[in-house]
Amino acid sequence: xxxxxxxxxxxxxxxxxxxxxxxxxxxxxxxxxxxxxxxxxxxxxxxxxxxxxxxxxxxxxxxxxxxxxxxxxxxxxxxxxxxxxxxxxxx
Length: 91
Description:
Low-confidence stretches: none
Shape: elongated
Number of helices: 4
Structural class: alpha+beta
């Protein structure tokens, strides 16, 4: 698993009371790459949980592992080939 965050901060912010959480996602860039061995997932009994997300395109199955590649960039959440607007979630 690899998780990276980049935060340039809010240099014009002078008062913490002025922070709007819905605006913070515009300034956050993060990347997540997660790979789980398929046989380990099958042995754990969690396959039904993963199947739902595979069908939705959020997790990919490459016959060896289950992979999730995600990033938050420009107020969008990218999960493999799906793009979800974070503005609709946080507003």
